From TrEMBL:
Keywords: ATP-binding, Hydrolase, Nucleotide-binding. This is P-loop containing nucleoside triphosphate hydrolase protein. Residues 94-363 form the ABC transporter domain. PANTHER family: ATP-BINDING CASSETTE SUB-FAMILY B MEMBER 10, MITOCHONDRIAL, ATP-DEPENDENT PERMEASE MDL1, MITOCHONDRIAL. It comes from the Eukaryota. SUPFAM superfamilies: P-loop containing nucleoside triphosphate hydrolases. GO terms for molecular function: ABC-type oligopeptide transporter activity; ATP binding; ATP hydrolysis activity. SMART domains: AAA. The lineage of its organism: Eukaryota, Fungi, Dikarya, Basidiomycota, Agaricomycotina.
Amino acid sequence: MKAMKEMTSDEYREDIIRGELGPYILKASIAILQQSSNTLRYSIENVSNSTESFRKGVNTLNSIYATSKIKNLIQDGSCSYPSAERSCESGMALELKNVTFEYPGNKSTSSALRDVSLSIKPGQLVVIVGENGSGKSTIIKILTRLYDPTSGEVHIDGMPSSHYRMADLHHSTAVLSQDNHMYPLSLSENIGLGYVGHVDDASMISRAAELGGASSFISKLEKGIDTFLNPSLEQFAWNLQGKPDHPLSKELNSLEKTVDISGGERQRLVASRAFMRFNSGKVKFVAVDEPSSALDAEGELRLFQNLIDVRAGKTMIFVTHRFGHLTRYADQIICMKEGKVVEMGTHQSLMKADGEYAKLYNIQASAFSNTAQ
């Protein structure tokens, strides 16, 4: 082929006719087509992703506005809690009278609670046991006024619970459950939110973390208690692979990263937040509803022991499947089955009765014994 600089236009046309440049033009056309195809694909994917992101954003906004239109069916009262007429220094007195409850939209033929009556004195430590679906957690939701009963009465300190302001009752109640939430803040702030007025009190937060069992894993983090769980910062890099000494690589590495913690560590943080809340002095009722499902037996035992140690001035109710180590502290054990209270009493009296509680306890003890072997 002649040198391209020495070829005239006529010679170009002649070479094309002869087909000498044909393969090169074909290759160039294929490369251009492939590049155009990639660009088109990227553009379509970008539009699709943007549309999906926009759709999610609109749905989020719709849910926010829809929330404001939800009518609260729980009746709020006008009486303050604690009331001036009755002291609650020992804790909150709780009573259910012939309570029946059905969850909204429930398709089951049986109620979650059926004609439940029980009385819990101020300062008592109560353990509620029973099989899954027996109504244990539902009792907690009724007592903490997350729901009102379908029928029957709920009394707090001798007065119908509906007479009290719900905000006052919630300030006087602490709930530890599996339903927990972590905020896009530092670990210190996540714990400190338990007592907002002292969210900057490092010593109080440190003590709460220790009681909640979170200190051990927090100490292993690079930034300790100042670690952010979910920093609101999107990070990406382009053409920095294999360039650790590049200034932008160093800047990228210095940015906050999302910290992934286990379910058990989350539960320890939530427990620490509850211990922080106890510092307010307002908590008179503590409901502990399976908050340690992701903890090992030793961690759960230590958490429950720490809760028992700070029970002064509080009524405590525990709901847990591993209840054997709690029964010796319990003033009252309530055994549930199919939405009804089938037994109430102390560990000794219920074991002597050899009923539902004795069956559950023996199954648990047998399983523990077999595991230990």
